[in-house]
Amino acid sequence: MIYITGDTHGDRARFVENNMGDNEWTSDDYLIVCGDFTYVFRNNDSEKEFLDYLEKEKPYTICFCDGNHENFPAIFSYPEEEWNGGRIHRIRKNIFHLMRGQIFEIEGKKVFTFGGAYSMDRYKRKLGISYWNEELPSDTEYKETVKNLKEHDNKVDIIITHTAPREIIRRMGYYPDVHDMELTGFLEWIMYEVNFQNWYFGHWHTDDVFNNKRGMFTAVLFNVHKVE
Q1: Is 101:141 a contact under the CB 8 Å cutoff?
Q2: Which of 35, 77, 216, 222 is the most buried (most CB within 10 A)?
Q3: Phi-psi category of 176—alpha, beta or left, where left has phi over 0 and alpha has psi -120 to 50?
Q4: DSSP single-letter state for residue 78
Q5: pLDDT tens digits along 78-88
Q6: pTM of this prediction?
């Protein structure tokens, strides 16, 4: 079974205190976090010990697309490999970073991932210490995404992103940030060009559902959604 939740922000209670109801999950289950995983951020011994705990104590597979509050050099230092049809960074044997523009076969479903967003709180962060330029996609990642989607005839079952298309951001009552207009515009292009059933995203720290003629959009923070 696939389960999907939002920004965990390195909050250990999300896993330790069974806040996600994962006590009954098995090695056949998958948890996907829609960015801002942030358990690989300070890259210190304490974080590594907690990742070891997750590897030992959680039988299921933990996957995440990247958000903006991620230490990208630390994530990129882990081995890159292919898994279920797409590229990942393997953090632990059961913890994967799902790279941008990839399409994975999970539980018989095609899952497309495209992380990244602009840190709106940059004013209190420091480049190379608490935020990194890689939080926004590169031209290479955009081009690879278009190529990969074309190879799948622009058809997937589930889309996982951190932020959302501009139209959905406006429906939440916000204005798209000028600093990531390229990204949110690209996601809007995907919204109209790709056939999908469900789109899950984080970043906006809300749990809500939006329907339009293209599909169902679910903003996730604390809720855990079970994909049938």
Answers
A1: yes
A2: 35
A3: beta
A4: S
A5: 999 999 999 99
A6: 0.97
